[in-house]
Amino acid sequence: MPEINTERIIEESVPGKQVTLAHVIAAPIKEVYQALGIDEVGAIGILTLSPFETSIIAADLAVKAADVSIGFLDRFTGSVVISGDVQSVEVALTQVTDVLENVLGFEVVDVTKT
Q: Which end of the chain is more exposed for a tag (fewer CB within 10 A), N or C?
């Protein structure tokens, strides 16, 4: 009988307060909107955070900072997706990372853009 190699992937949550991704997709292709189930309104902003519940705070901050909509929020994985025009998404992500870093003491990454 041939030997079957099984690949196992283990996901871990690293303790700590951190933003691990803050990225703007300036001009997503149509399939990205469809996969996310959100309207085609311009740019998409993506955040990943830990602890995961921080996604609630981040989404609230983003919507208060700029004219963006919450496309997706998952408090069990720390993922947030926002959408709006490019400038609004950039402003929102910058505000989120600034508040998390300077008010709540998070380690943050720079906001990136493609």
A: N
Q: Which parts of 26-114 are beta strand (E)?
A: 43-50, 69-74, 79-84, 112-113
- Asked if 83 contacts 41 with a C-beta cutoff of 8 angstroms, the reply is yes
- pLDDT tens by residue, the chain, 114 residues: 667 777 776 655 556 899 999 999 999 999 999 998 888 889 999 999 999 999 999 999 999 999 999 999 999 999 999 999 999 999 999 999 999 999 999 999 999 999
Q: Is 78 left (phi over 0), alpha (psi -120 to 50) or beta?
A: left
User: Which residues are CB-contacts of 10 (< 8 A; sequence separation ≥ 6)?
Assistant: none
- Which domains does the chain possess? 18-113 (3.30.70.1710)
Sign (positive or negative) of CA dihedral 22, 82, 77, 102: positive
The pTM is what?
0.83
